[in-house]
Amino acid sequence: MDNRIRIFDTTLRDGEQAPGCSMTPGEKLRIAQALSELNVDIIEAGFPAASPGDFESVKAIADANLGPTICGLARCNPEDIEKVHAAVKGADNHRIHVFVATSEIHREYKLKMAKEEIIKIAVGAIRLACELVDDVEFSPEDASRTELPYLAEVVSAAIEAGATTVNIPDTVGYTVPGEFELLFQYLTEHVENIDDICLSVHCHDDLGMAVANSLAAVRAGARQIECTINGIGERAGNCSLEEVVMALKTRAEFFGLHTDIETTRLYPTSRLVSSITGMHTPRNKAIVGENAFAHEAGIHQHGMLQNASTYEIMRPEDVGLSRSNLVLGKHSGRHAFRKRVQELGFTLGELETNRAFQAFKKLADQKKDVYDGDIEAIIMNVDGASAGPWFLKSLSVQTNSGQPATAMVMLVNEDGTEVNETASGDGPVAAAFTALETVTGVALTLKSFELHSASMGEDAQGEVTIAVEYGGSSYRGRAANVDIVEAGSRACLEVMNRILRRNKRTSESGQTTAVSRASI
Ligand code: KIV
Ligand code: ZN
Q1: Do 151 and 165 reside in the same domain of the chain?
Q2: Ligand 1: which of 96, 99, 155 to mutate, judged by most atoms within 8 Å of the beta carbon?
Q3: Most buried of 74, 159, 462, 512, CB within 10 angstroms?
Q4: Digit-coded pLDDT (tens) for 35-58
Q5: pLDDT of residue 193
Q6: Which structural domain, as residue segments, surrounds residue 440?
Q7: SS3 for 320-341, per residue?
Q8: CB 153 less than 6 A from any atom of ligand 1
Q9: Domain identity same for 298 and 333
Q10: According to the model, what pLDDT value does residue 231 have?
Q11: First and final CA of the chain: distance in angstroms?
């Protein structure tokens, strides 16, 4: 049996389904580029039938033809399958992934379908997908809670219908390693044609066992692991890519398996995904957490100085973590800046680099040391702030304890008009948001306001992520600044600008239906 494990990344599909993790098409493309540099085998770029926005972003990623196989998810119906085909066909290597639930609870309450009926629609969908592409994956959703003989029957029928990969999801994160290993053993023993396909595993982390369960599955014959960067995904998330890959690499002698992942890209890719989604990894997160390679206890530090392997089972360099976090200052030149940006996993065009470099110089005048977190925050700012129609020229706020705060904003429109507005509110953020709403005409409902320090020290930039609602849809905005009220205001303006651009596009194309939030 082949010893190579294929890595199927679903950050842009299952990961994006996590609350608060939706991404714009531009952000998805940037993550897809990083995934290709990480050398994943397959990128599940989205669920094209979910919305026109999802379709467009899967298509943009496929058309960029980045190297990995580009896959799209479809339910077992012709419309979904044809949409996936239309979206992914631009990539040299593309895949259609069809799924239907098979467990008793899903059959009875969700699908209201008998066992035979489910096999019938799965077989029909796989056959249709096989007419369109060579590479077809099938998933029996909630497989881990499906009766084993029936699961074997479904898998066998899927293979006969032409599936080239069969994926076994632990959809609700219910299984445990010993049980899951037995499930895979059962399938390899009871499904005659199982060697004709690549057996895959897809685990959720509800009981914190997604990585352990995925590793149990590969011990029993699975050769594809479905996972996400930082383990983001529905509810408690999915199997974390960086953890499962480093487990296979660090314990290669035990598993006798390998992946083709360029592990030195793990840390930059993790940082990219956390700054885009606003989902920050805990400090003690395995592999990519801030403390993953930090040694505090004196006895450990002593051991480390003698020989790093006393307390370190992996080298930080192997996951792309550079020991020196202190990077740049006001004397750093454009070349050093660009190099660090690349090391952090960003691919910027000439225009973006110029904008980011100018912002860096401005920041370096305000604070002495510019850290990786600051650079990431600059790049995120440049992204959001570069497209109008409104630009924040100045902001000043006044607060007095026990009294309402006042904010004065000066905004410039892309047509050159300058508008000043003053508003008051319970606090400086509320006052600034009200002033912005009055100028832009976009009234948002603020759902959350999260503040995260982009780097260290008293002069660190505050990175603000806001979640807001507008017209029944949710939006996320983010910005960073040494002044947190300004960061919040910029995040708010970024969302307002996106809504205004979307509204303009909709009215220009005469569309009246709402466009999904993912498309703006
Ligand atoms: O968790 C799950 O079952 C899924 C399938 C669509 C593969 O995400
Ligand atoms: Zn899933």
Answers
A1: yes
A2: 99
A3: 74
A4: 999 999 999 999 999 999 999 999
A5: 93
A6: 390-507
A7: CCCCCCEEECCCCCHHHHHHHH
A8: no
A9: no
A10: 97
A11: 45
